[in-house]
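Lab notebook: predicted structure, single chain.

Context: the supervisor wants predicted structures on file for every construct in the current expression panel, including those that have not yet been purified. This is the next one on the list. No modifications to the sequence; it matches the entry in the shared construct table.
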Amino acid sequence: MAEAAAVGRTRASTELAGSGAARPVGVVVGASNVSRGIGQVVAAAATALGGRADLHVAAGRGRSFGLDSRVVVRTLPSVLASTLWRTLEATPVAHALITDVGNDLMYGQSPDTVLAWVDAAAARLRAHGARLTLVRLPMSRLRRLHPFGYECMRALLFPRHVRFSWAEALRRAECVDQGLVELARRHGASVVVPEEVWYGVDPIHIRRAAAAAAWQHIFAAWTVAPGAVRVPHATVVPWWPHLRLACALPAGAGFAGVRVRGAISVRGTSVTQEVQVWVH
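Prediction complete. Output recorded below exactly as produced.
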C-alpha cells in the first residue's frame, strides 16, 4: 500500500507541475466532516473553481491541527506536519478552506493552543496567496446539546481523552469560535457560520441528507458570482474516483503499523468537470 501511494505521489507531482496557471489550485483543511462528505466537497470545490482544478485535501476522521491522532488502528499526522506543505512548495493557491476546528479541544488542548495551530495553518496558506474561508464551530447546535448528550458524544467519539464537564467544554468551544472570528479578521478571510439544520442528533457532524446543501453553501465563498454554488448531477464525482477518495488514507497515515509514504492522487472526470485531488 505504501509503495502504491508513493507512485501516486510521483504522478501527482508530475501532473501538478504540468498543469499550468489555467488550472486553479484549491486547498481544503479539515477532519471528519470533510472525509465523510468527500464526494460533495470535491464536486462543490471544483465547480467553484471553474470546473477544472487541482485540489489538495488534508483531512481525516479525528484529524488534529497540531497533534498526531489515532482512531482504533489508524494513525494520522497533524495538519501542520502533513505532506500538504511540502507538496505545494511554491505553488500559488487560489482559495483555501479551513473547517472542522474542534477535535483538539476534546484532545485536551486549550483554546489558545488550538487557535495558534489554526493561525499557523492560515498563515502558511496566505503565504501561497490563498483567499481564505474559515468555518466557525456549530455553536447554535452545541448550545442546545443536553449534558447527557455531550457525555454520550464524548464517550463514543473521544473515549480515551480528557474528560471535561459540559459547561467547561462549551466554554472552551465558545472561546475557539470567537477566536476564529478574530483570526478571520486578521487574515482577511471569509467566515461561514454553520446552520443548525445541517446537524441532527450528532451535534458536530453534518447530516448526510444535508451534506450537499451544506458544502454548496460553504464553497459559495470561493466563487466570484454571489449566491450558493450549484452542482449539477453531471459534475458529481463519478462512483469509482469517489470510492477511491473515500477509502484513501492520507499521506503519512499509518494503518496497523503500515505507513503511507506519499500523497495519493485521484483523477475524476465527468461531462463538464475534471479535477485532480491529492489526499494528504
